[in-house]
Amino acid sequence: MSSRHTSEAPVRHGRQPRRSGLRTTLKVAIASVAVLALTVVGVAAWGVADIFGRLDRGGVSLPGNSGQAVPDVNAIEGGFNLLLVGSDSREGQGDGFGDPKQLTGQLNDVTILVHISEDHSNATAISIPRDTFVDVPACPYPQDKDGTVPEGEQPPAGIQKVNTTLKHGGLGCTAATVQELTGLTVHYAGAIQFNGVTAMANAIGGVEVCLSEPIVDPKTNLDLPAGDVTLKGETALQFLRTRYGVGDGSDLGRISNQQVYMSALMRKILSGETLSNPVKLYNLANVAADNMTLSNELSNPNTMVSIALALKGMPTENITFVKFPTGSGMLNGQEGEIPVEQDAAALLDAVKADRSLSITGGTGEYGAVPKDGASTEPPADDGETTPPEDDATSPPSTDGPVDLPDSVKGQTAADETCSNGNG
Description:
423 residues; Aminopeptidase; globular; disordered N terminus; membrane; LytR/CpsA/Psr_CW_biosynth; LytR_CpsA_psr
């Protein structure tokens, strides 16, 4: 309906100036650009409001973290640590992963702590094997089904396997335990379930990985041929979950498999294909809003975008994926993984100092292999190498990458490796 008042004087039509074809074209072009700009702004505003409305804040607080100020939409300032947790809970996942009523566990089978250096020059992702024995400190209570969070803390649970912490006290408890284990403050945390991994793989447009041998795993219904394979949807989830299709069927082989995927994912993201594509960024934020439980500090679109932009321009050789050093053993009558304290301290000291890392122990016995088929294992010590005479008195270098102990296995995002299947 017109907003003009009905008593407005009639318009008098005088002689109109002769229109210029060029001038008319310019006016049409300018008008088109204006309409396009308004449309983009409107859609962007709707998208951000939509994400805000659906983010699962969930009252997940992180112990020892005073909270991070919500950043502007640019690269986040300074260093930070982000905890990523993969849950095996079937709750809300449908019937595609077994009967949810029968498979009611809530174990964090994937626990990865990502450290970004103060100057954003390097990043380290530390995978903690699910059967690692850890000291579980006092933890927040998990969120009730009605959305409330009980006040106070649960008492320390003592020595337990790390993958029990999500069930014990939710995402906040896993964060508290990882802080206790590593001495690194967890600033942000997020947990994802099966359907979330599937949706994320689709939103990113799939991830191409290399398989040196076929992977066949009846337990996850995975059957992949050797060679280059693009993983999307449920196939990506099956690949990340498989244990019996790689190595010796243990969680350690699965960690190496996940590092192949994460390395390929980072190469794709940093190539500019994702960070420079607003549609993909929005899709990823949309997936996170629908499929992840986020800590209070992470449940903001600005924060998620700023964290992603902190990676922009980071050299792939400075992004390192490592397994937290452990050794198999028995504790409290249970078989599991026991931290190798001296080697873990060497790794964590280097991370806390924001040093780039050099992996000397290869990808591990059941790890990935380079795409060209060469071995990733370091050359054997033949005993003929003679250290420099002043080696014992030289102070440790503070420049260049830190050589990690042999027990710290892994690879960088620059290493194009192939998953070592069981075929």
